Amino acid sequence: MWGICSRTMVKVNPCGLIKPCHLVKPVSSTRVSGRYQSHQRGLPGLPVPPLQQTCERYITALEPIVEGDELQHTKQLLQEFQRAGGLGERLQRGLEKRAANADNWLSQWWVQVAYLEYRLPVVVHSSPGLVLPRMDFRDKQGQIRFAAKLIAGVLDFKSMIDNETLPIEYMGGKPLCMNQYYEVMSSCRIPGVKRDSIVNHAKSSTPPKHITVVHNHQFFVLDVYHSDGSPLTADQLCAQLDKICSSSPHTDLEPVGILTTQHRDAWGKAYANLTKDKTNKECVSAIQRSVFTLCLDGARPPVSEDSHRSIAAVQMLHGGGSSLNSGNRWFDKTLQFIIGEDGTCGANYEHAPAEGPPIVALIDHVVEYTKKPDSPQSPMVHLSTPQKLQFNITPQIKKDIEQAKQDMNILAQDLDVKVVVFGHFGKNVPKAHQMSPDAFIQIALQLAYYRLYQRCCATYESASLRMFRLGRTDTIRSASGASASFVKAFDDSSKQNTEKVDLLVKAVNAHRSYTTMAISGQAIDRHLLGLKLQAAEEKLSVPDIFTDAAYSKALHYRLSTSQVPSKTDCVMCFGPVVSDGYGVCYNPMNQHINFAVSSFNSCTDTSTERMARAVEGALCDMRTLLEQTPRAKL
Fold it and tell me: Which of 90, 107, 225, 404 has its CA at 20 to 30 Å from residue 136's CA atom?
């Protein structure tokens, strides 16, 4: 997913964020029109790793997750694949030729295969949710006032995109690709029957000047710019939102937005039917063209503070089902900000155009913006009334909506998600022991899983490829030989603590090494995918290494994980990428760690609660081990 997830050819993970370190440095606060393009041209292209290197590293990655006989069979297949003048060499040459003639040999393939050809619903399976801390309002007026400031904050960030004054980001001293920032505004996914597409209206000759607001399942077009191009003030936006809420009382109108929760082929057919009607087509076009969508959710029954974040995660991921807010969305929009009357706040984003970094940077900016004191009241000016979008509902459309409700309710009941604030420590503890916080947490996830299942599993963690032009993600394979040795030894009473610490250090270092390899474009997963797609491009049969049982196991990510660091005390969440797996996203703060853990209730072998407790236990036990065991300097 995020990088996410094609469950067919590719299984990835939501979010794809930069590895920890907030290494964002501004280049200038002045307008740099044209600098974006020259910056992009200066970035290197994504490399094609050496074939032998990838084959060797693939075997190493399989060792902790497949049996000896299977591994031996895979080695034989790889030897044949690599032989001089063989299929592997031919496909490698094809990839190298593609790389020489493209900005990025992978990017177009990746968007098609991982997203646009992925047919499960984007809800839960692909689009991540982001949960912000609960805001300090509990009524409709507070909701409207906050929403107005949020809109103003997003438009303030958008002005940096429009003026090309966004700070260039760096990682390890190297500049990063900024392209994804230019893909998230005014963009939308369009359903098809076998393959979807993306449109980005920000690049049109007349860029959109409106947002879509959804309230009580009713859609409105809200112009957010004056005729002179200046944005509406927070006061003016507040007045407009008030008009929207006053003119959209709770009714029994059909929730057209719930159609976007459907299986993509079903939605593709329903979409064709919906847009046959000229009025409906214009309504849908207005939503697709909008800069972003703002979802104003109604009040919910009070819940305890402990459970509030988990309930909020459900709202951000899928809206809670047809009786709640799943129809108060348009899940195809790249950006949806969601604000509940009870202070619940966050976002949902459609993953195809971008990974997490631009979304998190935007969220951080907006949260800071909303904390600013209110500006002096703006002079009253005449503002046109927001336009309500009126859909014509035929019997067939009503039938499609009823089916979407049923399917969404099944999915909502199936997903179990829990947000945990791990308060024992944050990234301060691993740092005190000279360990990468991300690697430390990933090894804790390995230990937690092993304690529950007595085996290791294929694990996905997103690695950013933004050091390369148009780079997206590759996979950090957190299950390694070193991590397997550590987790098997940890609860073995015959092992000395000094040995366990030594194994922990090796596991953490192995993870750091793989991370460095991945962000440098030398990991195995995207290269293997490229070889497979190159075979299809050349109309060759699928190479045996990709029909091998070991390859299926390698892509069956029972742990799909992502670190999403943020200045804001938030957490991103997403669903598992396999039916018997877990989705785990985390935001390590200095003194605590925010976790979101998910699994499917329909799988009797998984339990979100058990996994969350196991992760907490693993983290605490690893700290205790380090604190109780003196060791020599690394």
Answer: 225
- Whether the per-residue pLDDT at 45 is higher than 90: the answer is yes
Q: Which domains are delineated in the chain?
A: 35-106+423-628 (3.30.559.10), 118-415 (3.30.559.70)
Beta strands 170-171 and 197-200, pairing class: unpaired
CA nearest 605: which of 439, 457, 400, 419?
A: 457
CA 155 to chain centre: 22
pLDDT tens digits for range 186-223: 999 999 999 999 999 998 889 999 999 999 999 999 99
Residue of 125, 210, 318, 351 with catalytic role? 351
| Separation in Å, CA 79 to CA 57, 86, 90, 593 | 13, 10, 15, 44
Give the gyration radius of the chain's Cα atoms: 24
- Strand 415-422 and strand 293-297: the pairing is unpaired
- Give the rounded percent of residues in the chain with a pLDDT score beyond 70: 94
Q: What is the pLDDT of residue 632?
A: 53
Tokens 């790249």 -> residue: 334
224 token code pair: 């957010």
Quickly tell me which residue has 């849908």 as its tokens: 284
**Are the C-beta atoms of residues 132 and 345 closer than 8 Å to each other?**
yes
- What CA–CA distance (Å, rounded) separates 114 from 532? 14
What is the distance between the alpha carbons of residues 68 and 193, in angstroms, rounded to a whole number? Answer: 42
- Is residue 125 flagged as an active site residue? no
pLDDT digits (tens, 9 = 90+) for 362-382: 999 999 999 988 777 767 788
Q: Count CB neighbours of 278 within 10 A.
A: 9
| CA distance linking residue 147 with residue 139, whole number of Å | 12
